[in-house]
Amino acid sequence: GVLSNGKTQNSYKFEKIVLNDNVKIAEILYATIYNVYVKDTQGVVWAWGYNYDYRTGESSSQIVTKPYCWNIKIASLNVHLPLCYQNKDVGTVVALDVNGTVWTAGYGSLGMNGRGKGKVGLGKVSNNESMGIITSVIVSSDSVYAINKEGELWVWGCNMSGNLGYTTNLL
After folding, report:
1. Shortest CA distance to 39 belongs to which of 95, 120, 82?
2. What is the C-alpha separation between 46 and 63, in angstroms, rounded?
3. pTM over 0.85
4. Which of 91, 97, 149, 171 is deepest in the core (most CB within 10 A)?
5. Terminal-residue alpha carbon distance, the chain
6. 46, exposed or middle or buried, with CB in 10 Å at 0-12, 13-18, 19+?
7. Which among 92, 94, 99 is positioned nearest to 135, based on CA atoms?
8. 52, 44, 40, 48: which is closest to 66 by C-alpha?
9. How do beta strands 143-148 and 25-31 pair?
């Protein structure tokens, strides 16, 4: 599905990717063998490809063969994908929209989606209002770190190594 041509087999010819009528791609944000994320000229993310843990943002298909529109204008996008699919359910995509709100896509089995285990597809992090306006966000292998405009650091996800700065695991 990474070729976005409606098929899942390899192609040995060039394929033109069409997002929607009159929607133009401005930037390739991230691409792997499994997923592709692009931003259109309006700042909106489109994603497609392997979707086992719902990291494309689409919440019903295992393979998204046509671009899926996130319908939010983003300022930045961070992606963590497992090195192999033995570690399924840990792929998480974190986006910061232009208003300072954090969005995630992915299953969230380690708490990385910030919305609770089993909350699939694209959604706002549940603590957004308490965190205030976020100016920077990054995802690591098992946790997420966000800084708000007051300079406060907010963290969530897996704390097995104490990487969240707490003495207990917050799963």
Report:
1. 95
2. 14
3. no
4. 91
5. 32
6. buried
7. 99
8. 48
9. unpaired
